[in-house]
Design brief:
The chain is an alpha+beta fold. The chain has a single domain, classed as Beta Polymerase, domain 2 (2-Layer Sandwich), CATH 3.30.460.10. The chain contains five helices and six strands; from the N terminus they run ααββαβββααβ. Strands 3-4-5-2-1-6 form a six-stranded mixed beta sheet. α2 crosses α3. It is globular, with a radius of gyration of 15 Å.
């Protein structure tokens, strides 16, 4: 079977908020802290959500990023761009409709995205990122 035929047989993609919650859960599963999802739909045109979380050190920041990317790929979400992986102070995973920011604690405090985007609504993140996995 060709790759394109296989793609056509995949289930319909989850909605954007479900994908952002899945990213939060993946981060939580790698022990990310301070997980937040900001709903930017009313205040920005370049994306709909930010998923923001922190890791304790560079290895954990990379592990969180890897898990988010892996889990979303398995769910059919395509990563458009990644920045900051090698330095692991702030890894940005751009999925178009939402952006995942994985910070070291010091970088998160310095850039303080939640303050910069304080007008954004917050999405409830069940049990520190543990949203339900989509059912097949």
């Amino acid at each position: 079977m060709s790759r394109s035929a296989n793609r056509e047989e995949q289930p319909l993609m989850m909605d954007i908020e479900e994908a952002a919650l899945l990213a939060a859960r993946a981060a939580s599963d790698k022990k990310a802290t301070d997980i937040a999802i900001l709903d930017l739909r009313q205040i920005a045109s370049f994306t709909e959500y930010f998923v923001i979380c922190s890791g304790a050190n560079n290895r954990q920041v990379q592990a969180i990023s890897n898990e988010v990317e892996d889990r979303l790929r398995k769910a059919g979400k395509r990563l458009l761009h990644i920045e900051g992986y090698s330095s692991a102070e702030w890894i940005l995973l751009d999925y178009g409709d939402f952006i995942v920011h994985v910070f070291s604690s010091s970088s998160r405090q310095f850039y303080d995205l939640e303050r910069l985007w304080r007008d954004a609504a917050r999405v409830n993140v069940p049990e520190e990122g543990r949203a339900e996995e989509p059912q097949d």
